[in-house]
Amino acid sequence: MKNRVVVKVGSSSITIDGTINHEQLEKLTTQIAYLTRKGFEVVLVSSGAVAAGLGRLHWERETLTLPQKQAAAAVGQGLLMHRYEQLFQCEGLHVAQILLTSEDVSDRKRYINAKNTFQTLLQNGIIPIVNENDTVAVDEIKFGDNDRLAALVTAVVEADALLLLTDIDGLYTDNPKENPDAKKIDIIEAIDESVQKMAKGAGSKAGTGGMATKIEAARIATLSGATVTIANGSLPWVLKRLFIEKELIGTKFLPAKETMKHKKQWLAFASKAQGKIYIDSGATQAIHQNNKSLLLAGLRNISGDFCAGSVIEICTEEGLVIGKGISGLSSGELRMLLKEETLPKGVIVVHKNDLFIV
């Protein structure tokens, strides 16, 4: 056990009336410092840049254009990091700012570089503070991707646990603000369709994410082998109670029974496909049920232009996406081979070790 945890704090937990909630921020940093003194390595994924910037600029969120939101993020990120640095310095700790976009993790080399950077920081007792690069990352502002970002960071750093701090107490059977009979769920053993249906529960005004994004984050992180907890960030000493005293707080998602290897985690959740290939039913069965590599003989069509080593989507002849993989050949090479009257035998298009099946 590495005692390595990722803590994601939402805007609603560290801002108030559109400005930084200094009291909550101090409580959070005090708790993280306490964990580090107990031998934990902590990565902090912090929202709040947009909200902090809006407060400084006296702008109203509801009337802003996307460029204005991104400008607010640029202002707010500096304010947020300055305060984090001050607070952690009082605890004798150094911090490092890491701003990421999806492109930083979709490229395999950049993903590995990020992994090495995190590893170096943690080995030297430095607390990485991560945020989506709101100034350029359109998707984050539209979809609240910091929950997903936290899950991907959990996979990158091979953390034991992910804690999603928000302003609600956990996952409920229904929206507790609308249904007084809604019950909080303490433990989720597996994320299935019934769990995803519960994600219509309460969301937050300050941020852009809701319970649905947290469930998706939990799915990614549990498949990486981590335990995930959704809890209320305003609870006193929530980090100590959860990680030191092992108290059951919020909703806990247990690690998946079958976890993914790191390369397949990247393929499944971080990589972006550069093209598509379409395969017949025999090839579908071979890779889906028999854990075989995808051979040229099962290939029927190709879409897009891609190089050898690119990530591609694998589809049935009808167009249903059934997986992703790293192509061993370029689209041009594959098209040339398909034109031959007799296909060469044993040519591997995607090796089974480079294959993720949905």
UniProtKB/TrEMBL annotation:
Q: Which GO terms describe its biological process?
A: L-proline biosynthetic process
Q: Where does ATP bind?
A: K8, T166, D167, T208, G209, G210, M211, A212, T213, K214
Q: Which CDD domains match?
A: AAK_G5K_ProB, PUA_G5K
SUPFAM superfamilies per record: Carbamate kinase-like (SSF53633), PUA domain-like (SSF88697)
Output the InterPro entries linked to this UniProt entry: AceGlu_kinase-like_sf (IPR036393), Asp/Glu/Uridylate_kinase (IPR001048), G5K_ProB (IPR041739), Glu/AcGlu_kinase (IPR001057), Glu_5kinase (IPR011529), Glu_5kinase/COase_Synthase (IPR005715), Glutamate_5-kinase_CS (IPR019797), PUA (IPR002478)
User: What is a single molecular function from GO for this protein?
Assistant: ATP binding
The residues the record assigns to binding substrate are S47, D134, N146
Residues in a coiled coil are none
Describe the location of the PUA domain by residue ranges: 275-356
Q: Does the keyword ATP-binding apply?
A: yes
Per the record's keyword annotation, is Transferase included, yes or no? yes
Q: Name one Pfam family in it.
A: AA_kinase
Localization per Swiss-Prot or TrEMBL: Cytoplasm
Entry keywords, A to Z: Amino-acid biosynthesis, ATP-binding, Cytoplasm, Kinase, Nucleotide-binding, Proline biosynthesis, Transferase
Cite the EC number.
Answer: 2.7.2.11
Recorded catalytic activity of this chain's protein: L-glutamate + ATP = L-glutamyl 5-phosphate + ADP
List GO terms (cellular component aspect).
cytosol
Pathway note: Amino-acid biosynthesis; L-proline biosynthesis; L-glutamate 5-semialdehyde from L-glutamate: step 1/2
What coarse category fits the chief subcellular location reported for this protein? cytoplasm
PANTHER family referenced in this protein's UniProt entry, alphabetically? GLUTAMATE 5-KINASE, ISOPENTENYL PHOSPHATE KINASE
NCBIfam families reported in the protein's UniProt record? proB
> Which family, according to UniProt?
Belongs to the glutamate 5-kinase family.
Summary of the function given for this chain in its UniProt record: Catalyzes the transfer of a phosphate group to glutamate to form L-glutamate 5-phosphate.
Quote the protein name from its UniProt record: Glutamate 5-kinase
Its organism's taxonomic lineage begins at: Bacteria, Bacillati, Bacillota, Desulfuribacillia, Desulfuribacillales
